Amino acid sequence: MKRQIFSAEHDAFRETVRTFLTKEVSPHYEQWEKDGIVSRDAWRAAGKQGLLGLAVEEEYGGGGTADFRFSAVLAEEFTRAGAAGLALGLHNDIVGPYLTQLATDEQKRRWLPGFCSGETITAIAMTEPGAGSDLQGIRTAAEDRGDHWLMNGSKTFISNGILADLVIVVAKTTPEGGAHGLSLLVVERGMEGFARGRNLDKIGQKAQDTAELFFHDVRVPKENLLGEPNGAFVHLMTNLAQERMAIAVAGIAAAEHLLEITTRYVKEREAFGRPLAKLQHVRFEIAEMATECAVTRSFVDRCIVDHAAGELDATHASMAKWWATELQKRVADRCLQLHGGYGYMTEYPVARAFTDGRIQTIYGGTTEIMKEIIGRSLLG
Questions:
Q1: What is the pLDDT of residues 264-299, one digit of tens each?
Q2: CA angle at residue 254 from 67 to 241, to 5 degrees?
Q3: Of 51, 92, 106, 183, which is least surrounded by CB within 10 A?
Q4: In this structure, what are the phi and psi dihedrals at residue 99, rounded to the nearest 5 degrees?
């Protein structure tokens, strides 16, 4: 079915993204995987190409458009290229809204030009060793000391943790914390007491630096408070829908791409003297995955359009995130099986997609959390 949600402008942007990936990402990606981190040059190249700060005002160097469909194009093409390490989606779609919607004019002048040029790489730090999806369990605390906050605590599994120059940290600013006692504080590279742990060794997304962060008596200036004091919970709930949509977009794009490469493979690969595609079981597998992808694509595209119009609610974003990422996981497993022993070899795209994509049902809120959100919305 022909997709009907994009205009000629979106199509032109897609070609720009594909050219960028061909020139600036694919030739270097194998080395980035070995290094466990992406070159900062790639971030600056993305900035020059206009791929950073799509929704940031033009006066700060951004694209000046809040149309989420451009972000969807970016997510789809990076997913198809298997380039999860260069986390532009995290920068644009997850961190970006906090800066564009909550930052003061002074903060925007300080942070957004570098955000858009690629000179300032960003991260958001919510997860802690003892608190994953449960924001109520956050223990990192910041004490009001008059002209600054004194922060102590730690975070883990922070994407861009090594590269990040600017980290939005969720911290307790009242003794009880929770829904009415969390704030967003911006910690910047070089602040005394801010330290990074090791670059964590993951089973997938090897080029994407993921780290532990430590805060020991970090003096965070009062002017680095983002949004309302003790208002982080509401801010987080407001922006999580877009984060989950970005993950859902990548999920269905990954499933479709895996289906494409596996369909080609079973047509070419022979077993028992004939192509795998001639076996009824293989045809049934392809038919089932193609149907599931088509149905999921229809729902996710509707959510993209609704979100671009500012009409998507948290429940449907959670539905999209849950369904698309679980589909991605199933399709990756089935496609690897259809590749046989070759599917287990890292030089085959299906192998990397299998390990890179496994995190999709976990970060941004686990599948179980998504079901809880949906269930509560329906049953109270």
A1: 999 999 888 899 999 999 999 999 999 999 999 999
A2: 40
A3: 106
A4: -75, -40
Catalytic residue among 76, 128, 243, 285: 243
What the block records as the tokens of 301 is 């595209």
Q: Which of 123, 120, 112, 94 has the alpha carbon at shortest distance from 56?
A: 112
The structure tokens listed for 344 are: 């287990």
Kindly indicate the confidence band of residue 137, based on its pLDDT and cuts at 50, 70 and 90: confident
In order of 126, 131, 336, 362, the CA distances from 329 in angstroms are 25, 24, 11, 11
Kindly report, residue by residue over 196-205, the tens digit of the pLDDT.
999 999 999 9
Give dist(CA 28, CA 94) in Å, integer. 25
Which pairs count as long-range contacts for 235-239, CB under 8 Å and 24+ apart, including other chains? 235/98, 235/102, 235/184, 236/126, 236/135, 236/170, 236/182, 237/314, 238/101, 239/94, 239/97, 239/98, 239/101
Torsional class of 10: left (φ above 0), alpha (ψ -120 to 50), beta (otherwise): alpha
Q: What angle do CA 271, 275, 276 make, to 5 degrees?
A: 70
pTM: 0.95
Q: How far apart are CA 225 and CA 371, in angstroms?
A: 32
Q: Which tokens is 257 given?
A: 């791409």
Encoded tokens for 208:
């994407």
**Which has the closest alpha carbon to 81: 363, 358, 352?**
352
Phi first, then psi: give them for residue 82, nearest 5 degrees: 70, 35
